[in-house]
Write a structure and sequence with these properties.
Blueprint: H1 36-60, H2 67-72, H3 98-119, H4 124-155, H5 157-162, H6 173-213, H7 231-240, H8 247-253, H9 256-268
Helix pairs in contact: 1-3, 1-9, 3-4, 3-9, 4-6, 4-9, 6-7, 7-8
């Protein structure tokens, strides 16, 4: 048996290995991540756009934007922080319903697109695609579904609630609360179904438009961030249950502007694959 000698002067395969870290490959369908600077610009610009829209909404509803008035007003009584109180049913509150939601979302989208385009103009096409997805698929269609369904529900609210089975309470508070919950089950179910149908329909519509007009072959899947704008629909669900001016519903509604800043952020940081 012959044993081949090893030539120590000949470069071996292991010597060709690169010990320096290499850039991770981008797999097909993998979403390119935006740099931190672009993400920061997208976040700040979307928040700024939402803030300006919120100021417009507050002004329309009679709240003062005068800096001197705001400075003298306790923070808890600012329009965005004012919470409903059962002992003060006539307390003026900032109302956030369909029209206000669309205004806030519009400010977020314009802000995010503007800021993202300024700092990252080479990905402007992807930002316009994301604008289409957010405005139509995540805002207009879902809000339209929930808002339209709520108006139909309100016409038959009394009949629907009266048709729900009720327990004889005999003065027991737990049963009273349970009966109230049972009466509100249809509102919860109807709102949830309308929201799910709106999100699904919005996704299908935007994927069709992106494929037809932008030549995008890969369907955009529904992401967890897409659910952020729908916190407003949680407020609408509480409204449907007859608790529009409750402290809980009022507190939830104050988070709506913050969640509506997410669509603008998604637009501003959008990247090409």
């Amino acid at each position: 048996m012959n044993i081949n000698t090893v030539d120590l002067n000949r470069p071996q395969k292991f010597s060709k290995l690169n010990t320096f870290p290499q850039k991770q490959p981008q797999f097909k369908g993998q979403k390119k991540e935006a740099p931190a600077g672009i993400k920061m610009a997208a976040a700040l610009s979307s928040l700024a756009g939402t803030g300006l829209a919120l100021g417009l909404v507050a002004k329309r509803q009679g709240f003062s934007l005068n800096p001197n008035v705001i400075r003298k007003t306790p923070v808890k009584d600012w329009a965005i922080f004012r919470i409903a109180e059962r002992k003060k049913p006539d307390k003026k509150l900032l109302e956030i319903e369909e029209k206000e939601i669309l205004t806030l979302a519009g400010g977020s989208i314009i802000g995010g697109l503007t800021g993202g385009t300024i700092v990252d103009s080479k990905n402007i096409k992807s930002k316009f695609r994301e604008t289409l997805t957010q405005s139509i698929g995540n805002i207009l269609i879902p809000v339209g579904f929930v808002g339209g369904t709520s108006r139909i529900y309100r016409k038959f609210e009394k009949q629907i609630k009266n048709s729900m089975p009720q327990f004889i309470t005999k003065g027991k508070k737990p049963l009273k609360y349970f009966n109230k919950f049972v009466k509100n089950i249809p509102a919860i179910g109807i709102t949830g179904a309308a929201l799910a149908a709106g999100i699904y329909t919005g996704s299908k519509v935007t994927n069709f438009i992106n494929g037809k007009f932008f030549g995008q072959k890969n369907e955009r899947k529904i992401k967890s961030a897409d659910l952020a704008p729908h916190v407003d629909d949680l407020c609408l669900a509480v409204t449907l249950m007859g608790s529009k001016n409750s402290p809980v519903a009022s507190a939830i509604s104050k988070t709506v502007p913050l969640f509506l800043a997410v669509p603008g952020y998604q637009i501003g940081k959008a990247q090409e694959n």
